[in-house]
Amino acid sequence: MTQLENLSETFVHSKPPPLVRVFGTYREMGQQIGESRRENVRHSIENARKLLQAAYQELELTWEGAQIQARKYLPFAQEHYPQYVDEMQGMAEGANISFDELVVLNVMEAVTIDALHLTRCTSMAVSDECTADGHVLAAHNEDWIPDDENDVFVIQAKPKDAPPYLAMTYGGLIPNIGFNAHGIAQLIDTVYPNDSRIGIPRLVVSRAVLAAKTPGGAIKRTLIPHRAAGYNHLIVHESGEIYSVEVSARRFSIIYNKDGYVVHTNNYLSANMQEIENEPEELISSRIRYFRALRLLNQSKRHTIQSLQAIQRDHVNYPNSICKHDFGEGHLLDSEKTINAMVIDLTAREMHIAWGNPCKNSYHTYHLDD
Per DSSP, what are the bridge partners of residue 127? Predict the structure, then answer.
């Protein structure tokens, strides 16, 4: 089968991702999400069950065992960010599911010790000096197992005591990829350190960034003590400041946008973080995506929403390209694709998102009403 024939099989969504509007306390917002997207939450938990079952030979971890492991992370989250534990509790209540199962979903990377190497995302940001209209832009391809693609939705939130935000998530995951009314955007890429420990789950740490009011405040939130591990957090501010914060449980490194743009994928870029990268030979496709996106960004100083969308559709190193396609031939652990692609215009307070592979699906625009 040729590449073109494979692309013809890519699923096309006839509608935009659902928009869920929530407000109030964290528990209330979680309840509203759970009630509104009940089937999506339940479906993503079932997918997580299947994922662990498929990986049993490698991990020797049952669903019941995963719940026991996940509970070990809760006290750290409860101590530092009780509001997000409340949000998860509310989501479980709204979806009428077990709280323990929802916690497993939100600490899956921790309980599997990153052994599955599933996540393959690409993030980039461009400052006002490198765009045609002086806007600040950020873009992200979310790559994950195909079974979760139909569970994607967008949240427009007005928390009782935090900035309004607009974010993408799917299933029962608490939101962390998006931007807020203070002009702070966050894109995250999974990285693979060897110093992981029991602590504050990465999703909870990244969820807190959506409440930041300044770039410095956002960075400090990524580096909270007692974190279990870390992501790469691409932090973008409406002023054009861009920081890529590479994090592990005990280390960090900050990369600044001295060229007017930043790219990050799933491998560490800083030398001190590369020292603790687990199985770097497993991340060759990540390095190729990084260099490819970097080259494409470097070709222009007048980027637009459309030029970033074109990069998101790129198929160099296909099928493990920036626009990734599923060729697992039915094996869950080998199946992964781009389940959505977004471009955030921080200046205009807009999110443009394609549901599924951006090479075949249209972008839809969502606005932050603050």
Answer: none
Residue-wise pLDDT for 4-14, tens only, equals 445 667 889 99
CA distance 242 to 234: 7
With 70 as the cut, is the pLDDT of residue 190 above it? yes
pLDDT digits over 207-248, tens only?
A: 999 999 999 999 999 999 999 999 999 999 999 999 999 999
Q: How far is CA 45 from the centre of its chain?
A: 17
Q: How many CA atoms lie within 13 A of 267 on its CB side?
A: 17
Angle in degrees, CA 118, 61, 73, rounded to 5: 80
Beta bridge partners of 352: 343, 365
Note the pLDDT tens digit of each residue in 253-306.
999 998 999 999 999 999 999 999 999 998 999 999 999 999 999 999 999 999
User: What's the start-to-end Cα distance of the chain, in Å?
Assistant: 49
The 3 state secondary structure assigned to the chain is: CCHHHHHCCCCCCCCCCCEEEEEECHHHHHHHHHHHCHHHHHHHHHHHHHHHHHCHHHHCCCHHHHHHHHHCCHHHHHHHCHHHHHHHHHHHHHHCCCHHHHHHHHCHHHHCCCCCCCCCCEEEEECHHHECCCCCEEEEEEEECHHHHHHEEEEEEEECCCCCEEEEEECCCCCCEEEECCCEEEEEEECCECCCCCCECHHHHHHHHCCCCCHHHHHHHHCCCCECCCEEEEEEECCCCEEEEEECCCCEEEEECCCCEEEECCCCCCHHHHCCECCHHHHHHHHHHHHHHHHHHHCCCCECHHHHHHHHCCCCCCCCCCCCCCCCCCCHHHCCEEEEEEEEECCCCEEEEEECCCCCCCEEEEECCC
Domains of the chain, earliest start first: 115-367 (3.60.60.10)
